[in-house]
Design brief:
By secondary structure, this protein is of the alpha/beta class. It contains 4 helices and 14 strands.
Length: 335
Amino acid sequence: MIDSVSIVVKAGDGGAGSVSFRREKFVPKGGPDGGDGGKGGDVILLATSQLQTLMDLTLKSRYMAPNGQPGGKKKCYGTDGESLIIRVPCGTMVFEGASDAKEKIMDLLQDGESYCVARGGKGGQGNARFATSVNQAPRYAQPGLPGDERTIQLELRLIAQIGLVGVPNAGKSTLLQRLTHANPKIADYPFTTLFPNLGVLRWNNQERIMADIPGLIEGASQGAGLGATFLRHIDRTELLVHVVPISPAEPQQTWDTYQMIWSELGQSEYDLLSKPSVIVLSKSDLVDDDELLTHISIFQNHNLTAYPVSSATHAGIPSLIQVLMQRSANATGCY
């Protein structure tokens, strides 16, 4: 999945004004009639729901809009350059500047939303504009102004209300499938999920978009593994779901796994720990009731509520759906 790209955009230059004089039979001194040049084309970013990644923008690194045409005789205006439309997925953020000091200039969220990232140069005026009673035959016209040129960085951040985070093989993709009937790739090996998956959670005529983020490992905030690359996708989420796999006969290991993910989220460049969260203990069918209570009690001792679920047996899934819908509604202030 291509979710970050840097490109150079160059708007069209304005067309030059024309130096021309009226030449007709029986009109020996017709005067200046040079027309104005056309405006250069703009570069416009257009958000569309038809795209899911920024892959199309990796085909080239420089995008240029057409220049305006020069002015002509008989005060004819030059044709304006056509705007260059660059289509991007909904949820694309636009930054300018170096990676370590970039500044956000736009966030394209809605389908059809657009932003002019580079404006075309104004066309120059023809010599007909400069005729005066003193200078009745000016031989000067303006050149067109150059169009804007800038280097921008585009980052795609998925638009989802609920984000699933956890270690590889924690059962996030299977849980997403059970909750939303999405069809992510599921297999019994780490890093099955190589890009974020989306699903729609429905309950009582309410809908929430859920995102399954590739697994996080220790050191992810410093670039280890795959998850750190996609942490930007949960920056928009209103509710985080920590999917913690139960370690049979090792309750402390279950707690340590949760602590590791919590630490990595805190060390990332995004403000993730301030978001409301729900703790889900996945694969609860691997332990008996007594051992399950032991795992839950460890979280209770830290004033945390953990919800055990089993994607294999569907145990705990209906009650988890209600919790997620209610908690996400409280986070958005609606419901």
